[in-house]
Amino acid sequence: MSGRVLVGVKRVIDYAVKIRVKPDNSGIVTDGVKHSMNPFCEIAIEEAVKLKEKKLIKEVVAVSCGPQQSQETIRTALAMGADRGIHVEVTGKDYETLGPLQVSKIMAALAKKEDAQLIILGKQAIDDDCNQTGQMTAALLDWPQGTFASEVALEGDKVKVVREIDGGLETIKINTPAVVTADLRLNTPRYATLPNIMKAKKKKIANMKPADLGVDLTSRLEVLRVDEPPQRQAGVKVETVDDLDSLMNNWTVFHKCTQRTSLCVVLIPLLETVTPEDMRKEEC
Amino acid sequence: VLLQSAVVDSALSAFRSICGEDGVSLAAAVREQHGKDESVHRCRPPDVVVFPRCVEEVSAIAKVCHKYDFPIIPFGTGTGLEGGVGAVKGGVCFSLRNMDQVLDLHQEDFDVTVEPGVTRMALNAYLRDTGLWFPVDPGADASLCGMAATSASGTNAVRYGTMRENVLNLEVVLADGTIVHTAGKGRRPRKTSAGYNLTNLFVGSEGTLGIITKTTLRLYGVPESMVSAICSFPSVQAAVDSTVQILQSGVPIARIEFLDDVMIDACNRFSSLSYPVTPTLFLEFHGSERSLEEQVNTAEDITQSNGGSDFMWARDPETRNKLWKARHDAWYAAQALRPGCKAYSTDVCVPLSQLPQIIMETKEDLIENRLTGPIAGHVGDGNFHCLMVVDPDDPEELHSVHLFTERLARRALAMDGTCTGEHGVGLGKRALLREELGQTSIQVMQGLKDTLDPKNLMNPEKVLQLRRV
């Protein structure tokens, strides 16, 4: 076994930024907006580095596909403990249409080129929420996959993965080489420290183009339009059951704060997606 | 209270044209939310809340308030502990949360400038790729400009200092709308001898001299590694002696926290732990792997020589958190001692050498007056808190606690200390401030206030007691 782990890291708009849609609805504003490593990719890197610290694997290679700035994301991965980086340069229109299909082809090609034992990816990116790259990569390579991992354990030439699924947790054992995608509770990523950031400057980042890997970047998808979610509309407070009754046909009812003496019901338009935060704000 | 309706209408329409329709609120719920913080002081809602988006809007609204003599109350996150945001005389609350940009980060210079809507955790999340952090950590996720206004501090002040040491520059709007840059616009040298220290005049002024709209902060490198430790002691004296000796030995200890036996007992019950019920120190060390080994060994030797026992330490995050669990849950553990009651934290600070005596006398006072007050303290600074757990519906008990806190403050003053180490003066400690500073110093402070805010519009009735004009 090569003991080499490939980790994909994606440069995305920072999670704390308020997203704005371009006036022409063609996409979101990215110029001058803070970008950082996709949080699930941080978790993936952390897991790989932990495996290396436990001496279960030998080398962590961080991979990112994108323009020049993707190198910053690779540098962060190196500061967290990755050994070297690979920057697959994708720019312009190709970058705008870059998606899981293209990235998974790139990852598959790199996995073969680098003789990887394991690929760890974030379960999804916070900009497109696709949750497809890991699965597609495994399919292209015909490798087993352990997705939504909340625990990863290497056992000889197998990997035990505890997966977060709807009903609870599922434990599977898969052969290596394999693809694992990281879920939120897999670990808490370390902060990059200044000494490590300085050391990372000396680590190597190899540059290549998708054509060097024989990958065709043509997209099968075309984005027609991007819109903001509909504006929040005010809820309506209803005093009596009769009023409630007359509104029931068109509206979804949420039973709210039962105070000791009175029943207060707030109706919210059906189009709305109500989040727990919304409910807390509406409390009377 | 805003009286004449023509004046009110005129002012409100001016506010709306400055901040937009959405930027002005008269709603009762919004005003109540902006009239209280996390202290025991009751809610004192302002007459109107405005939400400016930039310093120009803050200045324009201040000019309107100045014209009509409306009180001005700056509001950050409402997490203060001394009633600082209560609109005692009504007026206009400036809620600054929409000014939430991190501006001008200079990594090699270790400085960053932030607006009032940026909280300390938001800043550290922003900085996470840079290897830098801002270490001042009061309990709440407070606004950094608000922390500057109250000269906040945290558990690692013993190594990294308080806001006073870490604010390089401020942008402040005065009561008449004038915009001031306390160290000069955009300036951020690490040290300076230039002119009066205006920056530190406003740090700790609790909104009584101006509205802070930008703060330039000193950043530090994220520690390479951390080790946490815990040690039990036979007496408060032994714990404090250890602290003094650790500091004297040159160990750059990052956190050194003290919990008394009552607090440890509460924590044992709340978190199902089994610490020995005796004064306990919680320590944290920051540094490189090698320096940590040296620091921990030195500290362990010192604690042992003072009768410390059960010295335990841990390096990995999970075990460190387990060791420190008691300290992290202290507030909740104290509240859990009497369900349904509220917790109120006292806050005095004395020279280190006086700490054993003041803690001893305070514990006797608590027992004598049958009050629940487990003690937690930043013992490296001589600062400790009694977490008074009190029934908010029992006026006698509230009164008893009030008298207790005054006795405690006076005890601290008698030992060359201060009536407030971290939380500020706010509404409740103005008389104690007079005792602490003395007539002359208070008069100097009053003079500065009169110069910067002659109409007494800035957060009236805080810090200084109202002087009849």
From TrEMBL, chain A:
For this entry, the protein name equals: Electron transfer flavoprotein subunit beta
The protein's organism comes out as Nibea albiflora (Yellow drum)
Q: What is the lineage of its organism?
A: Eukaryota, Metazoa, Chordata, Craniata, Vertebrata
**Domain of life per record:** Eukaryota
UniProtKB/TrEMBL annotation, chain B:
- Superkingdom of the organism of origin: Eukaryota
The name this protein goes by in its record = D-lactate dehydrogenase
- GN (gene name): LDHD
